Amino acid sequence: MAETVEEFLARRHIAALGTHNGDGSIQMSAVWYLFEGGSVYVATPAGSVKARNVEAKGTASVVIDSREPGVALKTASGHGPAELITGEEAARINMQIFERYLSADAIADERVGGYMVSNDDATVKVTPARWNWLDLGEAFGGLFETPGYMLPLV
Fold this sequence. Notes:
Pnp Oxidase, Chain A; eight-stranded antiparallel β-sheet; 6 helices; 8 strands; globular
């Protein structure tokens, strides 16, 4: 059975978040994320460029792809309204993000978890109207899973 975009987004990957700079260029950031209720949430410092861009423009784009050895590329991309969340709600969401990517030991370590919690005091929420979804494995009938077809990403 083919994986759905929602199943894919619920897994742990690295996302690329794109926000619009004042000069028209795009600010790209590799980020950890949480996918919930059709939205992507990204922890960030409230004073970061991406946070300022979201506050100024109210829109963002996100691309999430798989980079698993020997597995064909899967990618989901979307763009839409974005907002900056702060305060207790941001702290709660950000902890969910950290728990997706860090072990309990890392979160308990003040040098890692303590830094992340104190540094990332806001959350970017992006709610794409729709997702563009590509699964090369499905598109090519599984051929990309043939041993030796996919070269390692190093």
